[in-house]
Amino acid sequence: GAGVSQSPSNKVTEKGKDVELRCDPISGHTALYWYRQSLGQGLEFLIYFQGNSAPDKSGLPSDRFSAERTGGSVSTLTIQRTQQEDSAVYLCASSAKGQLSGNTIYFGEGSWLTVV
Amino acid sequence: KQEVTQIPAALSVPEGENLVLNCSFTDSAIYNLQWFRQDPGKGLTSLLLIQSSQREQTSGRLNASLDKSSGRSTLYIAASQPGDSATYLCAVRSGATNKLIFGTGTLLAVQP
User: Fold this and answer.
1) A99 in contact with B at a CB cutoff of 8 Å?
2) Interchain contact B33–A (C-beta under 8 A)
3) What distance in Å separates the CA atoms of residue A3 and residue A28, rounded to the nearest whole number?
């Protein structure tokens, strides 16, 4: 596709359940990012993948959160034992190179997660 | 720790006015700064990217400036239109990391 694609666009889950969120970056983009945006809050960095390098996981809020990127393309963010405070929009983004090169970062439309 | 602040938090202007949105950051050691817009229920759309060595970037009615030493950036919107109504976010790439640190945004409403 032409842009960053995320699925599902909306997810309602019960507290304690696990959820998986998927991101398809722009074709050819080697850098992939996950951010979280809670209601009324700014964007919070979660994790960053660049090529085959070890991911920067420094933003993951707890060990219930994990992410992987298979084949250098599609990424999955997994939240285990969801809590109500996990309710947020999860945004994925990609860029042609690592952001240190200055390339523009492109965002998907997000996965809206509601934990009830 | 880098902190990014945007003022004002919300702004309402009549159509046709020129306006300025402000972004300030606490650590001047940045690689670049990017302005985004976010429409309700949507993701972020990149507007302008300014490298640390640049002073400004222009795209159509938008002009973004960067003053690294004072830790400030402005986004100037000329001849505002109702379609410009959105939340505007600035983000800085700080130090030797790959994280974009975002401000909390300015909610702009352009009244027809």
Assistant:
1) yes
2) no
3) 11
